[in-house]
Structure formats: C-alpha cells, structure tokens
Amino acid sequence: MSITTILFFVFIVVVGVQIIFYLSFLFSFSAKRPETRLKKHVPVSVIICAKNEAKNLEQNLPFILNQDYSNFEVVLVNDSSSDGTLDVMKKFEAEYDNIKLVNVKTIEAFWGNKKYALTLGIKASKHNFLVFTDADCKPSSNKWLAHISSKFSNQKAIVLGYGAYAKKPFSFLNQLIRFETVMTALQYFSYANLGMPYMGVGRNMAYRKELFFNNNGFNGHISIKSGDDDLFINEVADNKNTALCFSKESFTISKPKTFFKDWILQKRRHISTASFYKTKHKFLLGLFYSSQILFWCLGILLLITTYNWQWVIALIVLRFSIQLTSFGLTAKKLDDVNLIFLAPVLELFLISTQLFIFIANLISTPKHWK
Length: 370
Known about the structure:
The protein has helices spanning 3-30, 54-65, 85-95, 114-124, 144-149, 172-193, 209-214, 230-236, 260-274, 279-305, 309-333, 343-363; strands spanning 44-50, 72-79, 99-104, 129-133, 137-139, 158-160, 163-165, 205-208, 242-244, 252-254. The protein has 370 residues and is an alpha/beta fold. The strands form 2 sheets. It has a 7-stranded mixed β-sheet with strand order 3-2-1-4-8-6-9, sandwiched between helices.
C-alpha cells in the first residue's frame, strides 16, 4: 500500500471525525432557538473588576446602571490601578446609590492576580446571584440583566452568556476575532447542552455566590493568574447546574483588539489556561483541533497529488456543507451572519495562528492581567 493511499484513508477518518463534531454541534446548539421568557426579577449583584480601565468605565457603566431591572447592585472592584480608574468609580458611586466600591491594594503574594481582586468583590456583594462582566463591555440592551437572571432556578446555579465583539468594517483582524468568538461559543454552548460544560467567558456569565464559596472559590487554581472564568466553570459546572442564555438582548459587546500583536498575546493567555482543563475536555478539544489541521493539510496534499481527486473533492464538499450549516445557523443566532461567506478562509488563518501560538507557549510563558 502506497503512502498516498494511506493518507487518503486517514483523510476519510479525519473527515468523519469533523462531520461527527459538526453534526453534534448542529443538533445540540446551532438548530436550537433561544428561550426569551422572562421571570420575576431576583436580586443580583453585578461585579466588574477593573485595572486601568478609566476610559472604558466612563463609556460603559451607564449602560449597566440604566438596566431595566428592579433590584440590583453594581460592585466595582479597583484592582490596584495606576490611572484614574478609582476616581471614575468614586464619581459614579456618588451619583448612584446602588454602587459598592472595593479598592484592592497591591499585596505581594497576590500581585497581578485578578482572582484575588474578584474574590474580594464577591465577598463584598450582598446578593446571592452574581453577574460578571468586564469594564470594556456594554450590554446589548437594557434587558440584559433580566435575560441573564431569568435562567437561574432551583437547579441552575450557573448561567453562561455570550460576549460578542463590536464590528469594524474593512478589518480582517476584526472578522477573524469575531469568527473565533462565534466558533468558541458554538463549542462551549454545544458541550454544555450535551451535558459537558467546560468553560464560560468572564465578559458575560453568572453564578450563585454560595456555589463559589461551597467550592472554595478560586483556591484550586489560585496560582494560575488567568482562568478566573473558564477554569472556575471547568471545575464546578456539570450537566445539572448549568443554563445557557443566548438571546440577542442578553449579549455583551466588547471592544476587540486592533493590532495583531495584542490579539496574539490575548490568545496566548487563553490557550495556556486551557491546558488546565479536565482531561475529557482537553481530549475532545484537542481531537477537534487536530482533525481541523489534518483536514486542511491532507486535503490540500491529496488534491496536489490528484490521488482519487473526485472522492477527495466530494469529501471536502460534504465536510464544508455540514460545517457551514452548523456555523451559519450559529452565526445568525449570534448576530454575525456576514462571517459565513469568509468562514473557510478565516478558519484556515485561525488554525494556523493557533498552531503558532501553541508553539510559542511551549517556548515562553505569556503575560497575564494588565
């Protein structure tokens, strides 16, 4: 049996793996409609941990403070900022009676550790239902809190939301960031629906205060400076306690990076954190990513050699048909439908960049928190 023949059969297996993944995503999340039924408002504490975010707080806090919600407080945590962040927080605190300010001083043992600052904010909150977002985020509507909090129930102690990125016309980097964000959401929403929640995004998520303290907070990974969102969810979420919220009114919108260098550094932090996930999650995520790389490498190689090219093209078309159906329905649901037409190009660029980042992380450790 020739090398080309072996590669062809490997390609068939790889395409099969990709199809299984995308069909699972399709039926577990892409084809589902969001539930928009709102419930009675439960008291919530919105927690925002900020480090050198004076400008973003000025712009985005009004959108949070003016939510159409009957009972909520906003806990602002200043994590040893060196700019005017604390002054901005004090200004809002003087104007609104539902703001609580926590000023975190630098402590050598926890220097630069966002988890320490967040823990102090959680301790200071007065309500059991906690909603988390970042200073550079704004809600997509004044019903954001109503939608997120409506997913809590006697069983559901965690709510995973969607953190979108603002659109910037004629920017390939912006399209790449949004594509990666939709793909990530497709996976973590799908796995959660399949009973295997593995991550959430700190830009838009919620959980009960008692869940945090009953699981010893961030103690299990306090030495890892990143992962205040995904590592905590990976540790405590299960098939019974996790709910999803992906109605368009429940999104938060963040400012995306505008330079490739900054985005690469951000992705390096995220990818380094994923190495601490549970084994089953690392296996599935690794298998999906490996099958993506092999699909592109083997597909291109087999087309160059023209070996069984009709079958190779048929397999490529089949895989793209299922993938684009799953991705397209998700992109429409998450209000990024214009990404569908560029999806193959964006996917190729993204997986190449991720491979570069993985190699870079083996060589050196990325920096964390500002």
